[in-house]
Design brief:
The protein has 13 helices and 2 strands; from the N terminus they run αααααββαααααααα. It is mainly alpha-helical and 319 residues long.
């Protein structure tokens, strides 16, 4: 078991390295990095606990694991909220951080008071130390704390699934699967007695999913490498009414391109949404990128099409 905890801890250390290597600073997500650190602390606590020889050392290792554990659901909630397009005021974040700190303070009473654990016994199972705990009257607070975050995550994802479509809906569905996986593992660990803390592996898998999502969502074009585009912004909304489908409009535009000119996947994403009548802000929200990034790609799209505004794009299929 100690070997398994060592491998999981080593993998959890590699994720922050990959985060700084593959993610550009401008695109980074602070809560994702805090999640990486929290899971590292959780797995460090489990590793230390696995080779404990005294109850005192085991309790200290258990507190280290809890230090990361109380912040994991908070980080997951903030990450999922951001991916689903929710933004909170600063006082909300501060309140949630305060709740996590309060939860950890209850854990710190172990070894001094019988409020959280009535008693603990250190045993060895499968080559690793394990704490056998008898819970005190404050332990259900932790269950309510974790459950409240899971419910909040599912609520946010549910709203996102109802109001979004396309890629945003698929992303929300992926987050839904991640949360349900962690909820299932958490419930099973409470109902079944195992010698291994499977939540450590569950948290690690969740990290990989979040990392993959942010890596795939980041824009691969560095803004500093692209010359500033000249864009003529429309002062008034443009309403186009015709009988052509979006696919027909795109085909008409593509067919008018020079033979040596092609549009990138991101430019096609922007073009589709322009034809749907979306504003720059709406496009940024739908693609999970910044408005400046939308502006950059729009300028490159205009250059490829040989136009300077949306009016000229519409004119290509109105002729």
């Amino acid at each position: 078991m100690t070997v398994a905890y060592s491998v999981i801890f080593a993998l959890s250390l590699l994720l922050p390295v990959g985060y700084f290597t593959l993610m550009r600073k401008k695109q980074s997500e602070p809560w994702l990095f805090v999640l990486f650190l929290s899971v590292c602390v959780v797995n460090l606590g489990y590793l230390l606990l696995s080779f404990s020889r005294t109850v005192e050392f085991a309790l200290t290792a258990n507190k280290v694991a809890y230090l990361g554990q109380v912040f994991v659901p908070l980080c997951m909630f903030m990450i999922i909220s951001g991916l689903c397009g929710f933004k909170y005021k600063k006082w909300v974040s501060c309140t949630l951080i305060g709740a996590a700190a309060l939860m950890f303070s209850l854990v710190l009473t172990t070894g001094h008071l019988d409020w959280y654990y009535k008693s603990v016994t250190l045993i060895e199972a499968d080559g690793a130390a394990k704490l056998i705990k008898k819970y005190g009257f404050l332990h259900p607070v932790n269950l309510l704390y974790v459950l409240a975050f899971f419910v909040a995550m599912l609520f946010v994802i549910g709203i996102s699934l109802r109001r979004n479509r396309g890629k945003s809906q698929k992303l929300a569905g992926l987050m839904f699967a991640v949360v349900l996986g962690n909820v299932g593992m958490w419930i099973v660990e409470k109902l079944v007695t195992w010698n291994f803390e499977f939540l450590s592996a569950s948290y690690l898998m969740s990290e990989f999913v979040f990392f993959f999502v942010y890596w795939m969502l980041q824009d691969y074009i560095h803004l500093s490498d692209v010359p500033p585009p000249v864009i003529v912004e429309e002062k008034t909304p443009i309403i186009v009414v015709d009988s052509m489908s979006r696919a027909e409009k795109i085909q008409a535009i593509i067919s008018a391109l020079p033979e040596d000119t092609t549009l990138s996947t991101r430019q096609m994403d922007i073009l589709e949404r322009i034809l749907d009548g979306m504003s720059r802000k709406e496009i940024a929200a739908d693609l999970h990128i910044s408005e400046n990034t939308v502006k950059t790609h729009t300028g490159m799209l205009y250059k490829a099409l040989g136009v300077s505004c949306r009016d000229e794009i519409y004119a290509k299929f109105q002729k």
